[in-house]
Specification:
The chain has 389 residues and is mostly beta strands. The chain has 2 helices and 29 strands.
């Protein structure tokens, strides 16, 4: 089993170097996307995606909206390990991590013609080491980030032009978990907002907790409540149901996904049942580390990436959102699927395979939620995420 990528800054840097070597055979290519018949795709049938990498900056791609087939357009390399990305409202500004200093940073880019990126404003410190996740608060006025190494979360104002402004909030988590190698202290792994934008949530692998915050009018993060996972579960990422009062947390250390009921009036989460993320017997064959989780727009299906099992799990969301049932898994199209994402239309799913240096592409059956590989994986760099917009 390869060493876990988030265990040390040095390992991330080493992975980035491996990605840089692998990318040598895949220089930017200027060519028109073509439909399976050989005709050029209509402009309306082409989407834009960005790849956040280890060692090769941000890669801009076009994708066929019917098949998900990717074509590289350009890249921006003057940023260190931008392993997670987020788009601002309207899709005109891209935000990324930058781990080039002792403290992590976040920065902004304007998205130009053909997905070309131009730096917008300056990078801003997140106040802690090894920033690993960011998200844009609804309305676009604040950028939120999670520092894995420091175990803290931050908020930054977003200026009128979309650039990142001053840091307005920084909260340090405390505590630990029962795993001495992975939970010796806090490790904030994700920060997101509920569907209505009322509360902010930080998922901390090191303390086995999900924290609820309120984002004040001045951009400060105010603690509201917290909920503990199963001891040693190592909560990593979570996703909300689009309409029902539930959230789903992928647990990295015990290979499960947990349902939490959500009170939108108070921001409180209550832990419910957990389910294995791989079929019975698979956990004994290989150690598995769940990573990303996403819910379909209609709330009927949940998708989760499995590192180790090297698969994407499909769950049925049942009991009006309160329960999950594992339906099947499909190969992830490469090794160590760190991230997955659904296209804006919900008809495509992409996997970012960190060790395999590939993006897996799948069509999504809207009735059954089933995933079908739509072609060979796209060869690229060592990846942290894939963001279709």
């Amino acid at each position: 089993m390869p060493p876990h990528p988030s265990s040390a800054l040095g390992r991330r840097s080493f992975i980035g170097l491996l990605g840089a070597a692998a990318l040598g055979a895949h220089a930017p290519v200027a060519r028109a996307l073509r439909a399976p018949s050989g005709r050029e795709c209509d402009a309306a049938a082409v989407g834009q995606a960005f790849l956040g990498t280890y060692g090769n900056g941000i890669i801009s791609c076009a994708y066929d909206a019917a098949t998900g087939a990717l074509t590289r357009r350009s890249g921006f390399t003057a940023v260190t390990n931008p392993s997670f990305l987020a788009a601002g409202p309207g899709g005109k500004v891209l935000y990324s991590l930058d781990n080039g200093g002792r403290q992590g940073a976040v920065r902004a880019f304007t998205i130009g013609t053909g997905g070309a990126l131009t730096a917008l404003g300056q990078a801003r410190s997140t106040g802690g080491a090894n920033v690993t996740h960011l998200s844009v608060h609804p309305g676009g006025r604040y950028l939120l980030s999670a520092n894995y190494g420091a175990g803290s979360v931050a908020a930054h104002a977003v200026n009128g032009d979309g650039s990142v402004g001053a840091r307005t909030g920084l909260v340090q988590h405390t505590g630990s978990g029962p795993d001495p190698s992975r939970q010796e202290g806090p490790h904030a792994h994700q920060i997101i907002t509920d569907p209505k934008g009322a509360y902010v949530f930080a998922v901390d692998l090191g303390t086995d907790k999900v924290y609820t915050y309120r984002l004040d009018a001045d951009g400060a993060l105010r603690a509201v409540s917290e909920v503990r996972s199963v001891p040693g579960a190592g909560p990593r990422h979570m996703a909300f149901h689009p309409t029902a009062p539930y959230a789903y947390v992928a647990n990295e250390l015990n290979s499960t996904v947990t349902v939490y009921s959500y009170n939108p009036a108070t921001g409180a989460l209550t832990r419910g049942d957990s389910r294995p993320t791989v079929p019975a017997g698979s956990a004994r064959a290989v150690r598995n580390y769940p990573s990303e989780v996403a819910v379909s727009a209609d709330g009927r299906f949940l998708y989760l990436s499995n590192r180790g099992h090297e698969s994407v799990a499909r769950f049925a969301v049942t009991d009006s959102g309160a329960a999950l049932r594992l339906l099947d898994t499909v190969p992830s199209g490469g090794s160590w699927p760190r991230h997955l994402s659904l296209s804006p239309t919900g008809t495509l799913l992409f996997t970012a395979n960190q060790y395999g240096n590939t993006v897996g592409t799948y069509t999504v059956n809207r009735e059954t939620g089933a995933l079908t590989p739509s072609g060979p994986p796209f060869a690229t760099s060592s990846l942290g995420c894939v963001l279709p917009i």
